[in-house]
Backbone:
């Protein structure tokens, strides 16, 4: 048995698009077959049927009506599938044999333009390349025409940082790429991986030059060239057309922006909350009050890429300040900005040739606002606003073309006429007159025939099959004049007739209509092409509007939230008066947030050691300092009464416990991995936040790790550090290590309870208050009581002694190391000995603790409520535990 010709055609096409679900056009449906049908029926909840394909068994099949395709495509793509659209590519009426079909577009997660994306976020597709010179990444959002590329040294953490910033929906990877690296990437960035052989799959130099206006001057090294030509090739292959809006290749350098690694980005909740993974509760949720889509995207980019150069930061800050000080100006700007549509995306549709008249009208309305924006900006004095004023192109030529050409009431479809405005084109006007006149003539004919025949119910009607006709009801047949009408159709209770004269007029009317729609369509395409020629100017304008909106938004939130302009320094000083956490202050009751001061410098306040019980507010305080620094480097005002912020090259955070079980790492492993990453990469200009380092293991382990991490930072890295801990024992480090300064969160001790005051004060906490916090959390009274007893035991025993011995020895060792290198072996031996003693002490105190626990468990057994089986099990468990302690 052999496949039917149609199925053979299907197979030939499918062969080329194996990684896609092929939508195969058959009449008014897109059909899917075989595995594609099974997948689609499951994902889209479609009925799976079968179709004779010439083989013994029917081919599994499911289908969707072509006019509803968009929503199905969207669902598949958002689930990570690629969809290839196979259309009929020749006119069925002239086709010999089976109609030729081919794929006209491939829609993939990274190239899908989601028109329902109310969040106006960028959708990026990226390509990664590496060779012995390093990595390169190229990324594009085809809906806005953005196309950028960067290259950097062969450092996996830089790769992950950059990718997590871009957050592409799809990544193109060379088939020679190490599979471990692919796994490393997908464990951090949940995107679709598309594998291509880069040595065979790329655009030629000529194609790149003709695509990008600036290709030859874009300062591209070989890696940038490779990766961008692969990405461009993929865009061609999927879009099957040249996109004119992708015409500038932006070369950027990651060293120009603050480094925030992927886990810090998550921890600081810059663009999404940690728990819910949505915008609410993140920094952008507080900041994004943008009036336009372009402004929203620009702001997101700024938040993701804080600046490092003082002048550039101040350039933004000065503009924001001018708008903060001139509230009326800012309000007027926002009023105008609010009526501006997403010009970038409309331009994308123009170049994709799927723009409709309504969207061109939106473009026109948007352009009409530019003169008032310029007028508002004309008296501004800050350099950035002046720059925008000078460079904002009013695009009045395009605006008048659209105003004159496009009908205000144009429909969404572009092939049914009524798109072109009166007086734009003489031929359109005369055809319209002909159409109208013809219709008037018909009305006149109806009246004339009624009068002539005396049949009041006579009417002239129209249908697609017979055209215009005269209809006379059965009751009036006797009044029909002989020879006047030609019979055309008989209905059950009426007859339809035509006349020669009526048919001639029908031709004229229908021709006029058809000619008019064709002409209007052609004129529309002509207008679209004229606008397309100005794409560079439109893109530039859209970009400036995005920036203006962003600056204006920063001014708006500064006024609404009482932010201040930060002073920017490069001397390593962070000084904040009455700082607040921008998000927490929004989510707790109004006025409840307690503001706090911060001083970090290169001298006595380099490492702030913040002690205090859980829930006291330590993390909030540390994050607030990081967020204020980031906001300042974005060019935003900050939540404080006064702020002087030193530019940080990198911000690191180790905050909160998070398991990466899918990646095979436990909570503690993740914690140590993050700490190790920080210790390897932080510089003296970095800001490092370490929250509860060491909590993931036993007290002594944890304390020791925390201790030595602080030592390492103080001696080697010298970066601005905030170290929160509930190990109040660490407060001993102040005075022992250079730059360590104790702070604590004040708590008020009531009789048998504590109240959090949220105030950061100088000096360390002398206890952890863990049991008090546990009590607030509602642990049973006898557990609390027992915990207090155990704590007392521990404190009376070896714990404090251990701490004292570590600290003194450590100081001595330190001095030894400084004094004499030849004694380093001795030092090492002393350290090992001491560690051994410590370990014994630690084990001792643990066995005391565990014995107590066992005794306690026995004492608390409620034998009467146990089944014999429970009792046996419990006994077995206790014996096992006891044996471990012998
Ligand atoms: P810790 O890190 O010490 O365990 P958190 O920083 O997580 O404590 O703070 C616990 C809660 O306390 C926060 O969720 C917040 O609601 C509240 N909080 C923290 N800091 C402040 C503050 N400065 N003013 C008011 N409430 C605060």
Residues:
């Amino acid at each position: 048995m052999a496949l039917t010709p149609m199925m053979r055609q299907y197979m030939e096409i499918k062969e080329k698009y194996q990684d896609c679900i092929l939508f195969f056009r058959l009449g008014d449906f897109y059909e899917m077959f075989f595995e594609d049908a099974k997948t689609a029926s499951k994902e889209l909840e479609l009925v799976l049927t079968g179709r004779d394909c010439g083989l013994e068994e029917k081919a599994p099949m499911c289908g969707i009506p072509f006019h509803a395709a968009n929503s199905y495509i969207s669902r598949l793509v958002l689930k990570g599938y690629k969809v290839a659209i196979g259309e009929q590519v020749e006119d069925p009426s002239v086709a010999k044999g089976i109609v030729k079909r081919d794929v006209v577009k491939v829609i993939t997660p990274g190239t899908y333009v989601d028109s329902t994306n109310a969040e106006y976020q960028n959708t990026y597709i990226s390509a990664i390349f590496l060779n012995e010179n390093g990595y390169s990444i190229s990324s594009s959002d085809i809906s806005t025409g953005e196309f950028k590329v960067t290259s950097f040294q062969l450092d996996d953490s830089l790769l992950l940082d950059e990718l997590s910033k871009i957050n592409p929906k799809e990544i193109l990877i060379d088939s020679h790429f190490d599979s471990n690296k692919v796994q490393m990437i997908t464990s951090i960035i949940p995107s679709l991986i598309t594998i291509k052989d880069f040595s065979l799959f790329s655009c030629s130099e000529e194609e790149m030059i003709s695509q990008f206006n600036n290709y030859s001057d874009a300062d591209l090294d070989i890696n940038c060239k490779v990766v961008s030509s692969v990405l461009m090739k993929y865009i061609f292959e999927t879009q099957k057309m040249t996109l004119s809006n992708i015409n500038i290749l932006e070369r950027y350098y990651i060293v120009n922006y603050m480094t925030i690694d992927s886990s810090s980005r998550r921890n600081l909740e810059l663009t999404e909350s940690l728990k819910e993974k949505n915008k609410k509760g993140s920094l952008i949720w507080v900041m994004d009050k943008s009036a336009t889509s372009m402004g929203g995207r620009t702001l997101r980019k700024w938040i993701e890429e804080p600046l490092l150069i003082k002048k550039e930061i101040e350039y933004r800050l000065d503009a924001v300040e001018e708008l903060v000080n001139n509230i009326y100006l800012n309000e007027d700007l926002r009023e105008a900005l609010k009526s501006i549509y997403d010009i970038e995306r409309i331009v994308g549709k123009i170049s994709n040739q799927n723009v409709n008249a309504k969207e061109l009208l939106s473009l026109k309305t948007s352009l009409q606002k530019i003169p008032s924006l310029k007028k508002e900006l004309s008296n501004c004095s800050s350099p950035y606003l002046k720059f925008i004023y000078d460079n904002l192109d009013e695009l009045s030529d395009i605006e008048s073309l659209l105003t004159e050409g496009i009908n205000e009431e144009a429909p969404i479809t572009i092939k049914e006429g009524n798109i072109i405005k009166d007086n734009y084109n003489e031929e359109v006007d005369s055809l319209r007159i002909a159409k109208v006149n013809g219709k008037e003539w018909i009305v006149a004919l109806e009246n004339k025939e009624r009068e002539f025949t005396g049949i009041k119910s006579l009417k002239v009607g129209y249908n697609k099959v017979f055209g215009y006709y005269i209809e006379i009801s059965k009751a009036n047949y006797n009044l029909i004049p002989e020879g006047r009408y030609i019979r055309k159709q008989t209905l059950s209770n009426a007859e339809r007739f035509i006349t020669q004269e009526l048919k001639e007029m029908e031709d004229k009317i229908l021709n006029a209509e058809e000619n008019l729609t064709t002409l209007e369509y052609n004129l529309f395409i002509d207008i679209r092409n004229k606008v397309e020629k100005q794409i560079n100017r439109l893109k530039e304008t859209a970009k400036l509007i995005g920036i203006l909106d962003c600056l204006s938004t920063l001014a708006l939130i500064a006024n609404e939230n009482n932010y201040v302009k930060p002073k920017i320094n490069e001397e390593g000083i962070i000084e904040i008066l009455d700082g607040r956490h921008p998000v927490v202050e929004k989510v707790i009751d109004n006025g409840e947030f307690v503001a706090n001061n911060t001083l970090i410098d290169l001298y006595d306040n380099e490492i702030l050691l913040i002690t205090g019980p859980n829930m006291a507010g330590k993390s909030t305080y540390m994050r607030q300092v990081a967020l204020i620094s980031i906001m300042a480097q974005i060019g935003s005002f900050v939540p404080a009464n006064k702020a002087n912020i030193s530019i940080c090259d990198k911000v690191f955070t180790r905050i909160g416990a998070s398991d990466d079980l899918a990646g095979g790492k436990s909570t503690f492993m993740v914690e140590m991995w993050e700490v190790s990453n920080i210790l390897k990469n932080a510089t003296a200009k970095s800001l490092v936040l370490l929250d509860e380092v060491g909590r993931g293991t036993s007290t002594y382990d944890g304390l020791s790790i925390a201790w030595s991490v602080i030592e390492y930072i103080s001696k080697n890295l010298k970066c601005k550090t905030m170290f929160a801990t509930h190990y109040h024992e660490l407060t001993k480090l102040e005075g022992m290590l250079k730059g360590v300064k104790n702070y604590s969160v004040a708590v008020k001790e009531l009789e048998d309870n504590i109240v959090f005051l949220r105030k950061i004060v100088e000096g360390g906490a002398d206890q952890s208050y863990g049991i008090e916090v546990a009590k607030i959390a509602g642990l049973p009274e006898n557990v609390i009581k027992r915990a207090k007893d155990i704590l007392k035991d521990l404190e009376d025993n070896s714990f404090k002694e251990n701490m004292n011995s570590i600290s003194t020895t450590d100081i001595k060792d330190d001095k030894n190391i400084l004094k004499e290198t030849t004694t380093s072996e001795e030092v090492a031996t002393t350290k090992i000995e001491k560690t051994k003693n410590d370990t014994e002490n630690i084990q001792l105190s643990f066995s005391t603790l565990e014995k107590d626990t066992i005794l306690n468990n026995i004492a608390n057994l409620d034998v009467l409520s146990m089944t014999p089986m429970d009792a046996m099990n419990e006994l077995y468990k206790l014996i096992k535990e006891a044996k471990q302690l012998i």
